[in-house]
Amino acid sequence: MPVTYEQVKAVAAQLYGSALKKVPEDTKAALVRAHAAETSPVARSVLSMMIASARRAEEADRHLCSDAGIPTYFVKIGTAVTLQGNIRQAISDGFDHLVATIQPPILKHVTNPLTLERGHKGRSMPLVSFDLVDGADYLEIVCSPKGLGAGRWAALEIFSFPTLDVIERYVMDCVLKAGSQHCPPVVIGVGIGGTFDVCAKLAKQASLRPFGLINPEPILADMEARLLDAVNKTGFGPMGTGGDTTALAVHVDYAASHGFVPVAVCFNCWINRRAGARLYDDGRIETFE
Protein backbone atom coordinates (compact mmCIF):
# COMPACT_ATOMS: atom_id res chain seq x y z
CA MET A 1 0.00 0.00 0.00
CA PRO A 2 1.64 3.28 -1.05
CA VAL A 3 2.05 6.44 1.00
CA THR A 4 -0.62 8.75 -0.43
CA TYR A 5 -1.10 12.43 -1.12
CA GLU A 6 -3.89 12.58 1.47
CA GLN A 7 -1.72 11.02 4.19
CA VAL A 8 1.13 13.44 3.54
CA LYS A 9 -1.23 16.43 3.48
CA ALA A 10 -2.77 15.46 6.81
CA VAL A 11 0.60 14.81 8.45
CA ALA A 12 2.12 18.07 7.16
CA ALA A 13 -0.72 20.03 8.77
CA GLN A 14 -0.61 18.03 12.00
CA LEU A 15 3.15 18.46 12.43
CA TYR A 16 3.02 22.22 11.98
CA GLY A 17 0.24 22.55 14.54
CA SER A 18 2.10 20.34 16.99
CA ALA A 19 5.33 22.33 16.59
CA LEU A 20 3.47 25.55 17.42
CA LYS A 21 1.74 24.23 20.53
CA LYS A 22 4.03 21.65 22.11
CA VAL A 23 7.56 21.91 23.45
CA PRO A 24 9.37 18.60 22.76
CA GLU A 25 9.60 16.35 25.81
CA ASP A 26 13.42 16.35 25.83
CA THR A 27 13.39 20.14 25.75
CA LYS A 28 10.98 20.39 28.67
CA ALA A 29 13.24 18.03 30.61
CA ALA A 30 16.26 20.18 29.73
CA LEU A 31 14.45 23.28 31.00
CA VAL A 32 13.68 21.50 34.28
CA ARG A 33 17.35 20.50 34.65
CA ALA A 34 18.44 24.06 33.87
CA HIS A 35 16.04 25.41 36.49
CA ALA A 36 17.51 23.08 39.11
CA ALA A 37 21.08 24.12 38.27
CA GLU A 38 20.50 27.86 37.75
CA THR A 39 22.05 30.12 40.41
CA SER A 40 20.30 33.37 39.49
CA PRO A 41 16.92 33.88 41.22
CA VAL A 42 15.65 35.98 38.30
CA ALA A 43 16.72 33.38 35.76
CA ARG A 44 15.09 30.62 37.82
CA SER A 45 11.87 32.63 37.80
CA VAL A 46 12.01 33.00 34.00
CA LEU A 47 12.69 29.28 33.55
CA SER A 48 9.74 28.53 35.84
CA MET A 49 7.51 30.66 33.62
CA MET A 50 8.75 28.84 30.52
CA ILE A 51 8.06 25.43 32.04
CA ALA A 52 4.60 26.55 33.15
CA SER A 53 3.88 28.09 29.73
CA ALA A 54 4.83 24.85 27.99
CA ARG A 55 2.47 22.89 30.21
CA ARG A 56 -0.36 25.41 29.87
CA ALA A 57 -0.09 25.60 26.07
CA GLU A 58 -0.58 21.83 25.82
CA GLU A 59 -3.49 21.82 28.26
CA ALA A 60 -5.28 24.72 26.58
CA ASP A 61 -4.31 23.82 22.98
CA ARG A 62 -2.79 27.27 22.45
CA HIS A 63 0.29 28.63 20.71
CA LEU A 64 3.44 29.11 22.75
CA CYS A 65 4.42 32.19 20.75
CA SER A 66 2.58 34.63 18.48
CA ASP A 67 5.35 34.24 15.88
CA ALA A 68 4.24 31.08 14.06
CA GLY A 69 7.30 31.30 11.85
CA ILE A 70 7.48 30.23 8.23
CA PRO A 71 6.76 26.68 7.05
CA THR A 72 9.96 24.65 6.88
CA TYR A 73 9.98 20.90 6.27
CA PHE A 74 12.76 18.32 5.95
CA VAL A 75 11.74 15.19 4.04
CA LYS A 76 13.62 11.90 3.78
CA ILE A 77 12.42 9.46 1.14
CA GLY A 78 13.26 5.81 1.63
CA THR A 79 14.23 4.03 -1.58
CA ALA A 80 11.97 1.10 -0.64
CA VAL A 81 8.83 3.18 -0.08
CA THR A 82 6.06 3.54 -2.66
CA LEU A 83 4.56 7.00 -3.15
CA GLN A 84 1.27 7.93 -4.76
CA GLY A 85 0.43 11.47 -5.78
CA ASN A 86 2.30 14.77 -5.73
CA ILE A 87 4.18 14.76 -2.43
CA ARG A 88 5.51 18.31 -2.46
CA GLN A 89 2.07 19.61 -3.35
CA ALA A 90 0.63 17.57 -0.50
CA ILE A 91 2.93 19.34 1.96
CA SER A 92 1.96 22.73 0.54
CA ASP A 93 -1.73 21.88 0.68
CA GLY A 94 -1.31 20.58 4.22
CA PHE A 95 0.08 23.93 5.31
CA ASP A 96 -2.78 25.72 3.55
CA HIS A 97 -5.24 23.51 5.43
CA LEU A 98 -3.56 24.33 8.71
CA VAL A 99 -3.77 28.07 8.00
CA ALA A 100 -7.48 27.75 7.22
CA THR A 101 -8.40 25.67 10.26
CA ILE A 102 -5.99 26.22 13.16
CA GLN A 103 -7.26 27.99 16.26
CA PRO A 104 -6.18 30.50 17.27
CA PRO A 105 -5.39 31.69 13.72
CA ILE A 106 -1.75 32.28 12.87
CA LEU A 107 -0.43 35.66 11.81
CA LYS A 108 0.96 36.42 8.35
CA HIS A 109 4.70 35.89 8.57
CA VAL A 110 5.59 34.77 5.02
CA THR A 111 7.27 37.87 3.60
CA ASN A 112 8.15 38.78 0.02
CA PRO A 113 11.74 40.03 0.40
CA LEU A 114 11.38 42.33 -2.63
CA THR A 115 8.20 44.15 -1.57
CA LEU A 116 8.00 43.28 2.16
CA GLU A 117 4.37 42.26 1.57
CA ARG A 118 3.26 39.67 4.12
CA GLY A 119 0.86 36.76 3.85
CA HIS A 120 0.56 33.01 4.33
CA LYS A 121 1.76 32.17 0.82
CA GLY A 122 4.85 33.05 -1.17
CA ARG A 123 7.38 31.89 -3.70
CA SER A 124 8.92 28.50 -2.78
CA MET A 125 6.72 28.25 0.31
CA PRO A 126 6.64 25.96 2.15
CA LEU A 127 10.41 25.54 2.23
CA VAL A 128 10.96 21.82 1.68
CA SER A 129 14.25 19.95 1.34
CA PHE A 130 14.52 16.32 0.27
CA ASP A 131 17.04 13.54 0.98
CA LEU A 132 17.16 9.86 0.06
CA VAL A 133 17.61 7.04 2.58
CA ASP A 134 18.83 3.83 0.95
CA GLY A 135 16.76 0.79 1.85
CA ALA A 136 14.25 2.59 4.09
CA ASP A 137 10.57 1.73 3.66
CA TYR A 138 9.19 5.03 4.90
CA LEU A 139 8.74 8.70 4.11
CA GLU A 140 9.97 10.89 6.97
CA ILE A 141 8.78 14.46 7.46
CA VAL A 142 10.19 16.86 10.06
CA CYS A 143 8.58 20.25 10.53
CA SER A 144 10.56 23.05 12.18
CA PRO A 145 8.83 26.44 11.82
CA LYS A 146 11.40 29.23 11.91
CA GLY A 147 10.51 32.53 13.58
CA LEU A 148 12.22 35.90 13.48
CA GLY A 149 13.99 35.77 16.83
CA ALA A 150 16.05 32.67 16.14
CA GLY A 151 16.13 32.98 12.35
CA ARG A 152 17.54 36.51 12.29
CA TRP A 153 20.84 35.53 13.89
CA ALA A 154 21.93 32.55 11.80
CA ALA A 155 25.26 33.18 10.09
CA LEU A 156 27.83 31.58 7.81
CA GLU A 157 31.43 32.37 6.97
CA ILE A 158 33.94 30.62 4.76
CA PHE A 159 37.48 30.06 6.04
CA SER A 160 40.65 28.70 4.48
CA PHE A 161 42.04 25.69 6.37
CA PRO A 162 40.73 26.85 9.77
CA THR A 163 41.90 25.33 13.04
CA LEU A 164 39.37 24.12 15.61
CA ASP A 165 40.17 27.23 17.64
CA VAL A 166 39.28 29.49 14.70
CA ILE A 167 35.99 27.63 14.22
CA GLU A 168 35.06 27.87 17.88
CA ARG A 169 35.93 31.55 18.05
CA TYR A 170 33.66 32.20 15.08
CA VAL A 171 30.80 30.35 16.77
CA MET A 172 31.29 32.47 19.87
CA ASP A 173 31.37 35.64 17.76
CA CYS A 174 27.94 34.67 16.42
CA VAL A 175 26.71 33.95 19.96
CA LEU A 176 27.91 37.33 21.24
CA LYS A 177 26.42 39.18 18.28
CA ALA A 178 23.03 37.55 18.86
CA GLY A 179 23.12 38.32 22.57
CA SER A 180 19.72 37.42 23.95
CA GLN A 181 17.69 38.44 20.91
CA HIS A 182 17.04 34.83 19.84
CA CYS A 183 14.94 34.10 22.97
CA PRO A 184 17.30 31.95 25.05
CA PRO A 185 17.96 29.42 26.35
CA VAL A 186 18.64 28.30 22.80
CA VAL A 187 19.77 25.20 20.97
CA ILE A 188 22.74 26.01 18.75
CA GLY A 189 23.39 24.09 15.54
CA VAL A 190 26.82 24.27 13.92
CA GLY A 191 27.76 22.98 10.48
CA ILE A 192 31.38 22.62 9.36
CA GLY A 193 32.59 21.87 5.85
CA GLY A 194 30.92 20.80 2.66
CA THR A 195 29.93 23.71 0.45
CA PHE A 196 27.99 26.89 1.23
CA ASP A 197 24.58 25.24 0.90
CA VAL A 198 25.54 21.90 2.44
CA CYS A 199 27.06 23.59 5.49
CA ALA A 200 23.94 25.63 6.24
CA LYS A 201 21.82 22.49 6.03
CA LEU A 202 24.21 20.63 8.35
CA ALA A 203 23.82 23.37 10.95
CA LYS A 204 20.04 23.39 10.74
CA GLN A 205 19.75 19.62 10.97
CA ALA A 206 22.22 19.54 13.85
CA SER A 207 19.98 21.94 15.76
CA LEU A 208 17.15 19.38 15.45
CA ARG A 209 19.14 16.57 17.06
CA PRO A 210 17.39 15.25 20.19
CA PHE A 211 19.08 15.99 23.50
CA GLY A 212 21.18 13.30 25.11
CA LEU A 213 22.63 11.80 21.93
CA ILE A 214 26.42 11.77 22.17
CA ASN A 215 28.15 12.96 19.02
CA PRO A 216 29.82 9.87 17.49
CA GLU A 217 32.79 11.99 16.39
CA PRO A 218 34.97 12.45 19.52
CA ILE A 219 36.47 15.71 18.27
CA LEU A 220 33.00 17.18 17.84
CA ALA A 221 31.74 15.78 21.15
CA ASP A 222 34.58 17.65 22.89
CA MET A 223 33.87 20.79 20.85
CA GLU A 224 30.19 20.70 21.83
CA ALA A 225 31.10 20.51 25.52
CA ARG A 226 33.58 23.39 25.27
CA LEU A 227 31.18 25.59 23.35
CA LEU A 228 28.23 24.92 25.65
CA ASP A 229 30.36 25.87 28.64
CA ALA A 230 31.59 29.03 26.92
CA VAL A 231 28.12 30.09 25.76
CA ASN A 232 26.67 29.72 29.25
CA LYS A 233 29.53 31.72 30.72
CA THR A 234 28.44 34.74 28.66
CA GLY A 235 25.79 35.37 31.30
CA PHE A 236 23.00 36.43 28.93
CA GLY A 237 20.69 33.94 30.62
CA PRO A 238 17.03 33.12 29.95
CA MET A 239 15.46 35.86 27.79
CA GLY A 240 18.43 38.10 28.54
CA THR A 241 17.74 38.40 32.26
CA GLY A 242 21.19 37.14 33.24
CA GLY A 243 22.19 33.80 34.67
CA ASP A 244 23.85 30.52 33.83
CA THR A 245 21.48 29.27 31.13
CA THR A 246 21.96 30.86 27.71
CA ALA A 247 22.00 27.57 25.78
CA LEU A 248 20.52 24.16 26.46
CA ALA A 249 22.75 22.40 23.94
CA VAL A 250 25.29 22.89 21.17
CA HIS A 251 25.10 20.31 18.38
CA VAL A 252 27.78 20.14 15.68
CA ASP A 253 28.00 18.18 12.44
CA TYR A 254 30.50 18.22 9.59
CA ALA A 255 31.17 17.14 6.04
CA ALA A 256 34.42 16.79 4.12
CA SER A 257 35.34 19.92 2.23
CA HIS A 258 38.01 21.59 0.12
CA GLY A 259 40.62 23.89 1.61
CA PHE A 260 37.80 26.40 1.83
CA VAL A 261 35.72 25.44 4.86
CA PRO A 262 32.31 26.97 5.46
CA VAL A 263 31.13 27.27 9.06
CA ALA A 264 27.43 27.87 9.70
CA VAL A 265 25.72 28.69 12.98
CA CYS A 266 21.98 28.67 13.63
CA PHE A 267 19.72 28.90 16.66
CA ASN A 268 16.45 27.46 17.90
CA CYS A 269 14.67 29.49 20.57
CA TRP A 270 13.71 27.97 23.92
CA ILE A 271 10.55 26.39 22.44
CA ASN A 272 12.85 24.37 20.14
CA ARG A 273 10.14 23.76 17.57
CA ARG A 274 10.37 20.37 15.90
CA ALA A 275 7.85 17.64 15.14
CA GLY A 276 8.30 14.61 12.93
CA ALA A 277 6.55 11.57 11.50
CA ARG A 278 7.39 8.48 9.48
CA LEU A 279 4.81 7.17 7.02
CA TYR A 280 5.18 3.50 6.06
CA ASP A 281 4.00 1.46 3.11
CA ASP A 282 1.80 -0.65 5.39
CA GLY A 283 -0.21 2.36 6.51
CA ARG A 284 1.56 2.95 9.83
CA ILE A 285 2.37 6.49 10.88
CA GLU A 286 4.85 6.97 13.72
CA THR A 287 5.29 10.43 15.23
CA PHE A 288 8.39 11.64 17.04
CA GLU A 289 9.98 14.84 18.30
Automatic annotation (TrEMBL):
<keyword id="KW-0408">Iron</keyword>
<keyword id="KW-0456">Lyase</keyword>
<dbReference type="InterPro" id="IPR051208">
    <property type="entry name" value="Class-I_Fumarase/Tartrate_DH"/>
</dbReference>
<feature type="domain" description="Fe-S hydro-lyase tartrate dehydratase alpha-type catalytic">
    <location>
        <begin position="12"/>
        <end position="277"/>
    </location>
</feature>
<keyword id="KW-0004">4Fe-4S</keyword>
<dbReference type="InterPro" id="IPR004646">
    <property type="entry name" value="Fe-S_hydro-lyase_TtdA-typ_cat"/>
</dbReference>
<comment type="similarity">
    <text>Belongs to the class-I fumarase family.</text>
</comment>
<protein>
    <submittedName>
        <fullName>Fumarate hydratase</fullName>
    </submittedName>
</protein>
<keyword id="KW-0479">Metal-binding</keyword>
<keyword id="KW-0411">Iron-sulfur</keyword>
<dbReference type="Pfam" id="PF05681">
    <property type="entry name" value="Fumerase"/>
</dbReference>
